[in-house]
Structure formats: structure tokens, C-alpha cells
Amino acid sequence: MSEEILAREQRRDSTQEADVLHDVFEGSYRRLVVQLYAVTGDSAEAEDLVQEAFVRAAAAGRRFLKVENHEAWLRTAAINLHRNRWRKMRNFSRIRYRLERPTDLPGLEQHVVVITALRALPAHQREVLALFYLADLPVAEVADTLGCAVGTVKSRLTRGREALAETLGPWEGSSDV
Amino acid sequence: MSEQHLKDFAETAERRVPVPDLADLTSRGRDLRRIRMAAVAGALALVVTIGGVFSSVTRDDRSTVPAEDPVPTPAFEELSARPAEHPRLVPGKQYAVRPWNLDGYGVSARFIAPARGWVWRGDGALKMPSGTYGDLPRRPYAGVAVMTADRVPVRQCSEVNPPRQDLAEDPLAAARQIAEIPGTRAIGSARATELSGWPAAYVRLEVPKLCPKWNDVILWGVTKAMFGGQPGIATVIYPGQVLEVWVVDVDGAWVIVYSELSPGLPEGIRAETRVLLDSVELEKVEE
């Protein structure tokens, strides 16, 4: 009798995990890819990172189920994967990757100036701009996601806006952080 | 440029994202979970096994004690700041150096060689599109150097040993002094930034022409006698060179990282220079 209850509970958990993952996937996948696209400057890598984050969510099972903010969990996982890849890929593949043309999503011709300007930024400025403006995260949450101080985020936001303004014209929008 | 431009880009991009099959991702997740569980079980078994072997070794014949582990291969190849020759750097390889003239400061600079053709010359790396590197580079070339400095000249070209002033103890103030070095022309204003996580300031310079008598322009240095050719002095030996300079405060040690590009340099080498610069990491180390 106890084995039957245990098996039923396991089936229920498994179904619940699948449902939650499906809902999060439907609601967040595309948005996360665009955020990581802004962070990495490369749409193919962004897709790869977000898919890998979902794989890890599936592997986490009930732990992912219990997370309060599933999208934040996935975004953090994707960003950490991106950072780990850069740290580990200290070989010619990384350098060649940097020198080759990055990939873009099709149909974004009218936004090529924005994409190019973002790519020209140092990675740490691009990260904070993407999380603050595209993911709409408050500064504290950007700092938490990236594992740095709030002051560092504010400084990088300021520098990033200044750098974008050099290419794209004066900044208009929320600058108060 | 407005915030709305970023949001418009994001909204358009979101509609263009191709969506993969979630079932495939879920299946890979299950495989990953199985692998992790197997790894945990294996690690536990290994701990038990090692415990058993160790206890048997301590009880039994000492000749069964395994050999010492080999010396681990360093992740970075150490370069000399005063090399006898100028070795070619291997593309993609990681290098570390105690920067030139930073003896006693406890700073290690690391970088990755971005592509073929870069040569190590002691104070930094250099690449010429053609020809071989001798005692001096031939134009056009790209170079990246890391060193220290605590003074800049207040005059240029009038004497072999120009009078100098101390650099300020703040990166931005120091960068502004560098922007005003006689004989150079700042491109834009100095601005605060960071490099390798350390507070820094950045300025871009051009050297329009050289001092006729000595065929150089002195940039910065640390020795009391500031004239070209002395160790610890940075100079430019060709007119028209453009430099990007970062003054970095590495926990109290003043470090200058700079690139030098000749006019007419191919775009590919400029891109390689950026890649090399982006890979530079500065670390405080034990002396």
C-alpha cells in the first residue's frame, strides 16, 4: 500500500514538474533568448545558453519546482553558463569566435545599429544594460544576478549609456538608478 | 538613442526567436540528472575504496605507496619582462608576466595571444603585418604593453632629459595629465572606467610628430633620468601613432596598459589588438 502511494506521489510530482516547465517555457523562453542575445551579442549563443538553462531546470526537478521566480532562475543559470564558458574556453576557439562574425536573428535589419552598438560595448557594460533595460530588473536584482555590488552596477550603467550615446546619440529615458 | 530603441529592438527580436522542442530539452535534462546521480554514487564508492586502500597501505608494505603526483602544468606560460630574444606567441595560449619595471610591486599581468604573428618583446606584445621583428618594429605595427609609471614630462624636445612631474594618485587625474603630455594630442577626454575589475581611467592619444633631435617622444616613466632608451621609459618612435591608454590602480600599484597602433594598419590586426586587450587581466600577487 505504501509503495502505491509513493509511486502515485512520484507520478504527481513528475507531472507537476512537466507542467511548470511547460508554462515557464511558453512564457519566458523567447524573452530570455533576447536578453541573452543582448548580453552575448550573438543570437546563436543566446539560444544555446537558454536551452542549456532549461535542460538544467529539467535536471533539477523538484528543486526548480520550488523556486519562487522561475524566469530569474533560468536567466541566472544562462548568464553563469555564459561566464563559465568564457573562463573555460581559454584557447584559440574562443579567440577565433571573437574574430568571426557573430550571428543575428533574421528580420532585425532596422535594429542593426542598436545591435552593433551593444556589441561594441565591454561585456560587463552590456550585461548590466541588458538586465536593467531589457529584463526590467531593479539595480539590486541586477547586482544579485551578476554577483557584484550595487555601486558597480550603477557605474557600469552610466558608462554603458555614455558609450552608447557616443554611437547612437544622446540618451533619452530613465537614467535614475 | 533612447531607452525605447532598446525596447523596440527587444520586442521585434522576441517575435523572431525560433522555438525548440521542449521535449528534447526535457529529455536531455533527465539524462543529465541520471549522469549526476551516477557521478555522486561513483564518488561515494571511490571514497570508500580509497579509504580501504589507505588503511591497507598503512598496515602493510610501504613499497605499495603510490608515486607522488607529477608537478601540475601551469595554466599560463610565464614570460620574461627582459627576454634575450623575441619569441613568437602561440595563438590562443595563455601568458603571464611580471610587467616591465613593476619589480617589487607584486603585479602579474595575464593575456591571451589572439592570433598568429604576435611577438613578445618584454614590455608587451607586437605584430607587424609583414617583415620580421628586429630590435625595433617597422611600421605599420600594433603593440600592447603593460608597465608602470609615476611621472610624465612637462616639456618635450628641448632637452634629452626633460623635467617631469609626478602622476596624480587618482587614475582619472593621472589620465588627464597623460592627455596633456607635451608633443601628444588627446583624442576625446579622459574618462573613468575599470580594467580587470580594478579602478582605472582611459585616454586616447595621438603623437603627430617626433622631436627632431632624438627622433622620439617621451610618454611616461619611473626612473629619475627621463630620457629615451632608458629602462622604464615609454616612448613613441614614429609620428602618427595612436595610443589607447589605461591607468589602473591595482590595489595601490600603478599600472599602465596601453596599445599603440600605426596609421594604415589592416582592420584585422586592429581587431586582434582589441581581443588581446580584452583578455588582459591584472592580479596582485606575492612578491
Tally of extended strands of chain A?
A: 0
Strand content of chain A: under 5%
The shape of chain A, in one word, is elongated
Share of residues in strands of chain B: 25-35%
How helical, in percent, are the residues of chain B? 25-40%
Mean pLDDT of chain B, rounded to whole units? 80
Contiguous low-pLDDT stretches of chain A (5 residues minimum) are 87-100
Rg from Cα of chain B:
26 Å
> N-to-C terminal Cα separation of chain B, in Å?
48 Å
What is this structure, in a nutshell?
The complex is a heterodimer of chains A (177) and B (287). With 177 residues, chain A is mainly alpha-helical.
Write up this protein.
The complex is a heterodimer of chains A (177) and B (287). By secondary structure, chain A is mainly α. In chain A, 77% of the residues lie in helices and 0% in strands. Chain A is built from nine helices and no strands. The longest helix of chain A is centred in the N-terminal third of the chain and has 39 residues, at 2-40. Chain A starts with a helix and ends in a 9-residue tail after the last helix. Mean pLDDT of chain A is 81; it is low at 87-100. With 287 residues, chain B is α+β, with helices and mostly antiparallel strands. In chain B, 26% of the residues lie in helices and 28% in strands. Chain B has helices spanning 3-16, 22-59, 171-179, 267-279, and strands spanning 77-79, 94-97, 107-112, 119-120, 124-127, 142-147, 151-153, 164-166, 185-186, 191-195, 198-207, 217-221, 233-236, 241-250, 253-261, 281-284. In chain B, a hairpin with a 2-residue loop joins strand 10 (191-195) and strand 11 (198-207). Chain B is globular. Residues 57-73 and 224-230 of chain B have low confidence and may be disordered.
